[in-house]
Known about the structure:
Order of helices and strands: EEHEEHEHHH
Largest sheet: 5 strands, mixed
Structural class: alpha/beta
Number of helices: 5
Amino acid sequence: xxxxxxxxxxxxxxxxxxxxxxxxxRDLFVGNRAAAESPPRSFAAVVSLTADPSAATTHxxxxxxxxxxxxxxxxxxxDTVRERxxxxxxxxxxxxxxxxxxxxxxxxxxxxxxxxxxxxxxxVAEHRRTAVAHPAxxxxxxxxxxxxxx
Length: 150
């Protein structure tokens, strides 16, 4: 019998329908590309991490889902989310809403709340059950947090 607490997503699959998950009671949301094409609600900022911006994108910070991102590119994405959260609800989206968006949102959350990356990613994953961070993005997240500790 399948475990109801385990979410399975076929490799490379991205839901064609909008997927938006709120991270607890925070004004921070993780979503897929379809959610950024026609957001189901109003956001102060839509931070798109895809190669091309979506219709509702207000801040485009393209990242690849794997190695190939510079620390500066990753930091720019996280900093944008951190800055915009003070203005109202923020949607962070990537193609599937699973790796890039979850990692950037978790890193911004960790920095804002003084958490470690893995703890913050766990918080995001509680609400986006299919969230799985690429190891290369995890490395960038940990390095970002080490450089931005106060």
